[in-house]
């Protein structure tokens, strides 16, 4: 089971979602991730999509569209429909292109782990392969394979690896970042070990269901935010905080440009991992005077406990194990 948590932790720490820095102001957003169980035997990992409008004047509607990077195919169908209904989508994707801006000719490519074009970094392509294997092992779909980014309304609003290297060098986190990239590029043995471990977790229906349950508990307990893992080394925490602050700052700057146009579009979606959402909400409310007016909860994936023959005792055991593991270094 510790192998499972190591695999998932690596994927989460290297994936699109990132943790939040210190609060912009005394605003505490409601969670963007929840584990829901109604009157049935079904447990659901649900992700919020929250709608914001200007508090004092008319203007563009802004949707904070949180995403789970792996989920059921129907989840991504619903996400695609929501995104296609917006006039502009500012999406997440750390690229291997220097000076990558939302209006560049390649701005619609999902660069973070996109892996299709020659511009994809080897580490990103390798992590994309790892996440894709995790999704298929759990009987789920992978975001970058399930969402169609080839839309005129989609614009990459993220940093490039070159930008990150420069920023992290300035903040003393360059060595940790390079170590992470090297680990992701760590050679055939390391990659084969991870791939083998993930495939083992999906080798039987019961093991697959238990693995999905553990993943659900992990994402739910940390709210899609790796910084909530209390056992993280201090330098890695600092590295992740720099990442979230600067990446979110880039998005908010792009959003301000769009909102400042003479005729801004009617609706804008910020399409990022759930770990970004609390800080985005604080910035929307404090810097742009936006207020939440509505929300949707989409089910990323679910488990039928009865069908999977998972008892309530097993649920509690997995929950406690994940909680204890997240507290350990």
Structure description:
With 329 residues, the chain is an alpha/beta fold. The chain has one domain (2-327). The protein has 12 helices and 9 strands. It has helices at 2-14, 73-84, 122-137, 143-146, 161-170, 174-184, 188-201, 205-222, 234-259, 277-287, 305-308, 312-327; strands at residues 33-36, 42-54, 61-67, 70-71, 88-91, 141-142, 154-156, 267-273, 290-304. The strands form 2 sheets. Strands 1, 2, 3, 5, 7, 8 and 9 form a 7-stranded mixed sheet that branches. α3 (122-137) packs parallel to α7 (188-201), α5 packs antiparallel against α6 and α8 (205-222) crosses α12. The protein is globular, with a radius of gyration of 19 Å.
Beta-strand content bin = 15-25%
- Which secondary-structure class do the elements indicate? alpha/beta
**Helical segment count:** 12
What helical percentage do the residues reach? 40-55%
Question: What tags apply to this protein structure?
Answer:
329 residues; alpha/beta; 9 strands; 17% strand; disordered N terminus
Any chance you could write out the topology, listing elements then pairs?
Blueprint lengths: L1 H13 L18 E4 L5 E13 L6 E7 L2 E2 L1 H12 L3 E4 L30 H16 L3 E2 H4 L7 E3 L4 H10 L3 H11 L3 H14 L3 H18 L11 H26 L7 E7 L3 H11 L2 E15 H4 L3 H16 L2
Parallel strand pairs: 3-8, 5-7, 5-8
Antiparallel strand pairs: 1-2, 2-3, 2-9, 4-6
Quick overview of this protein structure:
With 329 residues, the chain is an alpha/beta fold.
